[in-house]
Amino acid sequence: MKQLAGYDLHTHSTASDGSLEPEALVREAYAAGVRCLALTDHDTLAGLSRARQAASELDGMHFIDGVELTCLWNGRVIHLLGLGIDPDFAGFGGYMEQLNNLRNERAEEIARKLVKKGLPDLLADARSNAGQGQIGRPHFAQAMVERRLVLTPQQAFDNWLGQGKVGDVKACWPTLESAVGLVKQAGGFAVIAHPTKYNFTFTRLRALVDDLLAAGGDGVEVSYPGVTPNHLRDLLLLAKRKVLSVSAGSDFHSPEQRWTALGRFPPFSAAAHLLRSLLPECTEEWWYDAVANA
Ligand code: AMP
Ligand code: MN
Ligand code: MN
Ligand code: MN
Question: Which of 20, 121, 157, 161 could form a disulfide with 167 if both were Cys (CB 3.0 to 4.6 A apart)?
Answer without folding.
Answer: 161
